[in-house]
């Protein structure tokens, strides 16, 4: 086996990944079968970047050195037979970039050990690589929370004949992701031509630029998802997801020779149209707690602006419920006058929402009379103050709107009107509200007693 039986480098705690500014320590182990004369034993720690114009070539055309430190752990002498251990320790600069290995260049960090022997004797050396990781915190990048969007218009030419245009719009919800996260891609394709397009696709792309005299661009597809086609004259909304695999980070801070970029490419195969959505790949994901909050509108002012009164009568506009905020009525056509008893009945406070029994009666109807419904268009924002009510924003009327002289009842868009509209020939009223004598002035005096009625 010769004199040298073992010559190895070991890092403390078998650690192989370090951070900038951290110290790296370990030991060099030498095991000899017989004594060995040496001039010195040295340990070197260095980091550098090398790039080339040929694929997987180590004859670097350009190099960049980050640090290079050497210590001597043994002086000139004779190493006895057996095992010898020499400790070492180095400090990694805080400006050193992250390790990287590509087709046209690398960022390499390593520890090497040398045994210098006398003249005409064989020299011995060994090395062990370690990796440096400088974390990229996405929260520190500017405008990282904004959606990334783009649009492009392309002429559609089929058989040398122009048939129209295709408009492609796409966006991603964020600009920064970490490996394992999902990129939400949303695209809108409007085919304004007379020919069906090819399949749509979304791809996660990586572009590495090596800054030689003539820069080399290494572009490759990391992941790709494919969708359907868009027929002539149609518009399609397409949503897809791309899972980010383990990838190097976007920024190699401290390196001037290698630049890494990522982007999402959304394209159509026919016509040849595509757009790019640049994104960042980092190590520390975005924290929702650090997301800048958008200025929200004042709820009170918004409710006041969005609460319209579509039609109102003099009876209902003069009084409101105790739990209903006062809303200034809009100008409406003056309705025809009503009889006095009906006017007194409508002067009571109306609830912001009808009771459950009222809904059941309106929906179920009465056995003796046909159930007639009156459709009303009610603004959903008009009931934003009533707790427990929900109206969809895209609510559509079921029929024609109410007449100007017809009372409006809040709480339901389809209810049975308690009074027939003015001018109607005949309409049964299954729900007639009794007059409230507590607030009405009728009767004006108490009825006569039994003795008084007998005397008269």
UniProtKB/TrEMBL annotation:
GO terms (BP aspect): nervous system development; protein transport
InterPro entries: Arrestin-like_C, Arrestin-like_N, Arrestin_C-like, Arrestin_domain-protein, Ig_E-set
One Pfam family recorded for the sequence: Arrestin_N
Family as reported in the entry's similarity comment: Belongs to the arrestin family.
Protein name: Arrestin domain containing 1a
Domain Arrestin C-terminal-like: from-to ranges: 162-286
Residue ranges with Low complexity bias: 295-325
Residues covered by region (Disordered): 289-456
SUPFAM superfamilies on file: E set domains
PANTHER family, sorted: ARRESTIN DOMAIN CONTAINING PROTEIN, ARRESTIN DOMAIN-CONTAINING PROTEIN 1
Biased composition (Polar residues): 372-382
